[in-house]
Amino acid sequence: MQLAFVLYKYFPFGGLQRDFMRIALECQSRGHQIRVYTLIWEGDIPPGFEVLVAPVKAFFNHRRNEKLSAWMEADLAQRPVDRLIGFNKMPGLDVYYAADGCFEDKAQNLRNSFYRRWGRYRHFAEYERAVFAKDAKTEILMISEVQQPLFIKHYDTPLARFHLLPPGIAQDRRAPPNAPEIRAEFRREFGLADDDLLLVQIGSGFKTKGVDRSLKALAALPPALKKRTRLFVIGQDDPKVFQLQSAALGLGEHVQFLKGRSDIPRFLLGADLLIHPAYNENTGTVLLEALVAGLPVLVSAVCGYAHYIAEADSGLVLDEPLEQAQLNQYLNTMLTDDAARATWSRNGLAFAETADLYSMPQHAADVILAEQH
């Protein structure tokens, strides 16, 4: 079967991008041909993949998206495929992987009415409607139950078109038998003493992930505790605004910003706590990556996967709406209570043994290749 996948941007460190890659590779492993349409491709191309980078440019993102759709449509007319699978909302998809939340709900509840007069709004609303409208034919791969009621509310989407997937945590995120040695080597490399405490915040899109909240919480720690605490912020984003905030808070050498990288498992094993006070997050794959590595997690309740942290008892979930004072207090508590951190770590590792946190690519491929299309 010839399959075509489409996503606006591929780079190796994004959550959506990694999910796309693992699903496409799973389909390929079952004997199917893979073609990819995109605007930007960064990183290696797997053997056997046909990657087409659209030769389009536009000043506005939504115009560029439209040009990609038109260019892809023209190519598909010449070279048809059996399935078109999208990782961003757009017309013509057979299957959509719902990495993003409901745009229309945000537009109505978080924006003023003036916003809905702009071309940008019309574009994203139209592309979302093409996927979720009651009479559309697109099958929808859901990775979080949180957003499903919102799509049904705005579009009256038939329930039968939703397919809820389990998480898809890569097995290399699990703590290996030599985890203590990896941790010791990592901490030597980054100059961390035995009694130093390392926070990590991992994810592209620093504003959405709540890096500003993490910096405030670090700055609010008692002086003696703050002195031995460091924060590594890792992701594909421009850190300038947050570097300025860090400097204004007097955090100096306590905070380092690192670009997205492929050795994240080392950071999960070498750190003492993952902090993730996101403003919104459909899922939050890194939460489960920390859990299966035995790293305690401090997370905002809006994240789709936050409930796993509560179920596993592998950290603390903040109340919603989030209050900075509670974040500050929880961070202080988690850093000072070594015994609790050890318990949260053990709980996460135990949960990782029994819960299905790994089979998302297989389930997604089952839906993509099913006969109902």
Q: Can you summarize this structure?
A:
The chain contains 16 helices and 15 strands. By secondary structure, the chain is α/β, with parallel strands linked by helices. The protein is globular.
Label the CATH architecture of the largest domain: 3-Layer(aba) Sandwich
Instruction: Find the CATH superfamily of the largest domain.
Output: Glycogen Phosphorylase B
Counting DSSP H or I runs of 4 or more residues, the number of helices is 16
Overall mean confidence score, pLDDT: 95
Number of distinct beta strands: 15
Instruction: Using the alpha-carbon principal axes, give the shape.
Output: globular
- Mind summarizing the main beta sheet? 7 strands, parallel
| Domain tally | 2
Structural class: alpha/beta
| Beta-strand percentage range | 15-25%
Kindly identify the CATH topology of the largest domain: Rossmann fold
Strand order of the largest sheet: 5-3-1-6-7-8-9
Low-pLDDT windows of residues: none
Output the radius of gyration: 21 Å
> What is the straight-line distance between the termini?
13 Å
State the share of residues found in helices, binned by percent: 40-55%
The first-level CATH class name of the largest domain: Alpha Beta
Task: Provide the fold topology.
Blueprint: E1 2-6, E2 9-10, H1 15-29, E3 33-38, E4 40-41, E5 49-53, H2 61-78, E6 83-86, E7 95-98, H3 103-109, H4 119-132, E8 139-142, H5 148-155, E9 162-164, H6 179-189, E10 197-202, H7 206-209, H8 211-219, H9 223-227, E11 229-234, H10 240-248, E12 255-258, H11 264-270, E13 273-276, H12 285-293, E14 297-300, H13 306-312, E15 315-318, H14 324-336, H15 338-354, H16 360-368
Parallel strand pairs: 1-3, 1-6, 2-4, 3-5, 6-7, 7-8, 8-9, 10-11, 10-13, 11-12, 13-14, 14-15
